[in-house]
Amino acid sequence: MSQTARLLIVISLFWFTQYVYVPYTTPFLLAQKVSADFVGLVVGFYGAVPLFTRIFIGLFSDKIGKFKPMIIVGCATAALASVVRLTYPTGMGFLWANIISGFSSSMWMCFILFHTKTLTKENLQRGMGYVMASCNLGILGGFFASATLYESYGMFLMCLLSVCTGSIALLISLTLKEPTEHRLQSPKVSDLLHVVFNKRLWFFAVIGMIQQGILMATAMSFSNEVAHSLGAQPWQVGIMTMTMSASYVASCYISSTHLAIRIGPGILMTATQLCMGLYCVLMVNLDSVYALIPVQILLGSTGGLVFSWCSAEALSQIESYRRSTALGIFQSLFAIGMTMVPIIAGYLFEQSGTLTNAFYFQALLALAGAIATAVYYIHRRHTRLRDAQA
């Protein structure tokens, strides 16, 4: 088996490990009389830890010029977190486990950069598409396993599966061979941090922040509430989630095809952000659970045609020895979106008593991202034409 195939398997297993227990964490803890505030703290720490650690891990990875050690640590700590959940299936146990899982997720950039380390700028998008597809395939597998097994076997099996897949990912990661890179000396931290002046990195980080924020505030939270308000059964909510996840995986593969690369990010990213805005409008205007299911494809399309393109475009002008630092900044910024957009949406929901305002706010956010993307690529095209004529 090729190294690329092994790495993609590790990525899928890693994200399966991180997500198989997620859909039922909140109901599991609430059933144990854990307060809603504490449950929010448990969930919040998973996102908060990477927000503060990714930039430091990025700097460290660029300093040593290696990513395999962080991949091994990521797989090991992902499995360890669920060992904690099995040993201490309480609110406090899950809190410490989510802190460990958050630290594990901080290593995600190293999985990406291990694969893209030797890729040229021309092949970067294709490589990013494969990585993101494998990531979301693992998440989809986790959602499917929890949807089909939790009711019969409970949280114990979810955490046991997490430990097993994390351990398998760890064993396979030990067989990976670090791509060689000739460097005269370790770069200075000040040199690595020079990426903060790259405007392209910041622009695509903001676009990624919008996409990830809307994804977290819809499919991962309030979209389910919309379905419940229409009388959806748990299996229908599960189909909604899996439809979104499957289309997310498919869009990642599509983004790596020759046709998608030929069309280019300008058209595809703008169009799919408009689809994301349409999704937000339709979610609060449809009156049938069965109508909500196919609509999930509109949101899922943003996985490869917005987020993987953002990741590739953000790194395309960054030297290889600085990419880990740049990706640390990129991922820290979209983590802010994953935190702030759901908070704002929740506030609008609380104030109005209806999800309409929350979803319309996100539709406007998606529209703003689409307009900004279109303007960016039109300006870039005119600049290139002007330079070619000069």
UniProtKB/TrEMBL annotation:
The chain crosses the membrane at residues 7-26, 38-57, 69-88, 94-115, 127-147, 153-176, 201-223, 235-254, 266-284, 290-312, 324-347, 359-378. GO terms for molecular function: transmembrane transporter activity. Signal peptide: none annotated. GO terms for cellular component: membrane. It comes from the Bacteria. Its main location: membrane. The keyword Transmembrane helix applies. Pfam families: MFS_1 (PF07690). It is a multi-pass membrane protein. Keywords: Membrane, Transmembrane, Transmembrane helix, Transport. InterPro entries: MFS, MFS_trans_sf, MFS_Vesicular_Transporter. It is found in: Membrane. The keyword Transmembrane helix applies. This is MFS transporter. It comes from Candidatus Anaerobiospirillum pullistercoris.
